[in-house]
Amino acid sequence: MAYTVFQSGSTLQVADTSGTLTTLTMPSGISLDTVNTPRFTVFGRYVVVVNTPSRPITVDGNLVVRPLTPLPPRSIPTVAGAAGGSLSGTYNGIRQTFRILDIDGNVIAESDYGQPSGSVTISGQYLKVSNLDLSPDSVTESRIYRPTTNGSVLFPWISLSGNTATSIQDDLADAGLSLLTAPTLGSAPDLTLIAEWRGRLWGVSRTEIDDLRWTESELMYSWPDSNDLPIPRIGSDSRGITALVARSESLGVGRRNILWQMVGTSNADFQAVKVSENCGILSQESVKVFNDVAYFLWFDGVYAWDNSGVHCISDGKVRNWFASDTYFNRGRYQYSFARIDPNRHKYQLFLCSAGSSTTDRWVEYDLDDKTWWGPHKTGAFTPTAALICPDANDVLVPTIGSSSGFLWQDRDTRTDGSSTAIDFDVDTAFSDANTPDIEKYFGELSMMGKAQTSGTMSVTPKVGYFNASAQTPTMSYDMTKGRQRLRRVGTGKAMSLNFRHQTAGENVELYGFECEYHELGRR
């Protein structure tokens, strides 16, 4: 069964396809921050969660939560010889790790190596290791690595089941060691950003904000310190890397004013190539990828990144929405979030209204016909997150999380109650009949719409000269009539109409309007 993982307050929860919520049990010693934004990615059968957990965590298909990487051993192993064995030689640098295995014995996670032991020389004895550490995490076993006789390269040696043994002795010959050397390991940093690309996890540390980090191939728990690349412009701002954008063949690395792309196939040749220095990414949550095109918000609008490059999709259409202080609080752009409606092919972006820190406005971009719609207002609740949840038939349903702790889902037909109205508030463009400098007389207004069972809409004309227009008395349109003629509008060089309806439980569907006019002084 599919699950949707999300954070609600200080708890981690999942919703199944029927909408049933389950609160997950966090690992001992790991808590969730309620100020930052949780960030998720999927790696194989696991959901990885960062930025709000005090340590990065994973959630498996059985809803078990574990640390992404167990803490490494803290004590230094003590080595000595013990009577009864057959090993001879010098052994140095023996190390311990902690491992978490699934029920089939597969490794889910392995810690970084603990400190190396000192050197010991034995002759015809067991090699004994003591002072082994016990993990504060819930681990399956300890793994001990040792070199061959008089060697320096580590190999897997012994696995100690459970989390209670602090010593072990063994005289396994060099020939009995694994042919594979010890793996490259490393602890996951305190990650603020996370993405999966080309079989690796990629992230950014809270303390090293300019550096991109990544795991070893196919190992979500292995974060060696050497897998690190500073992303220019280093030190240019206090936010560092702001977003990771995983497309099919590209991993975008966004900063506030520049966008880079990772190229290469291995640790030996990974490097960053500049995509654009004309824009960057302000909010990780504004980034959505659909059909291999990434959409995101910058200072002056919404941009798309595809195989042809980066271009603004709001310029020339609704630039004033984003580049002015009229509609949205531009100081809160870094907290915006978005979703792709896969059924209607819409990019929907949620923003704070002008002068507000509450996310109660949203706009949408039609990916098919390239049109913008909005701004819309959500009045019934305060959105805090936008996501897509599968239902029992694996149909993806657009969903909004609210500050009140509820999930709200889109419906083709209205199924909500009648306590909170949707405020229908629409202004038309000014009409000047292509003669903007000539005074006109606008006659009777005729409204056309679908006949409803009840409802009255307020129609307020504005006539004059564009923004200097004068508002004339409001008219009432009876929505039970498919067509209704209202009074005359008035005189002015241009006309705009405001349609307003805010009664709960009543539908609105307008087809259009007509208004005859003539230029003053002419008949």
Defining traits:
Jelly Rolls, 5-stranded antiparallel sheet, 1 helix, 48% strand
Secondary structure: elements and pairs:
Blueprint: E1 3-8, E2 11-16, E3 21-23, E4 39-43, E5 46-50, E6 57-59, E7 65-67, E8 78-92, E9 95-101, E10 107-110, E11 119-130, E12 141-147, E13 154-161, E14 168-170, E15 191-197, E16 200-205, E17 211-214, E18 228-230, E19 241-246, E20 251-255, E21 259-263, E22 271-276, E23 288-290, E24 293-298, E25 301-306, E26 309-312, H1 319-323, E27 337-341, E28 346-352, E29 359-366, E30 372-377, E31 383-390, E32 396-402, E33 407-409, E34 424-427, E35 440-449, E36 456-464, E37 470-471, E38 475-478, E39 483-492, E40 494-501, E41 510-519
Antiparallel strand pairs: 1-2, 2-3, 4-5, 5-6, 6-7, 8-11, 9-10, 9-12, 11-14, 12-13, 15-16, 16-17, 17-18, 19-20, 20-21, 21-22, 23-24, 24-25, 25-26, 27-28, 28-29, 29-30, 31-32, 32-33, 34-40, 35-39, 35-41, 36-37, 36-38, 36-40
Description:
The chain has 523 residues and is an all-beta fold. Among the domains are: 99 residues, no CATH class; 131 residues; 96 residues, Jelly Rolls, CATH 2.60.120. The chain is built from 1 helix and 41 strands. The mean pLDDT is 93.
Task: Give a concise summary.
By secondary structure, this protein is mainly beta. It contains 1 helix and 41 strands.
Strand content: over 45%
What kind of sheet is the major sheet? Answer: 5 strands, antiparallel
Beta strands, count: 41
Low-confidence spans: none
Gap between N and C termini: 72 Å
Shape: elongated
Mean pLDDT: 93
What structural class do you assign from the helix and strand content?
mainly beta
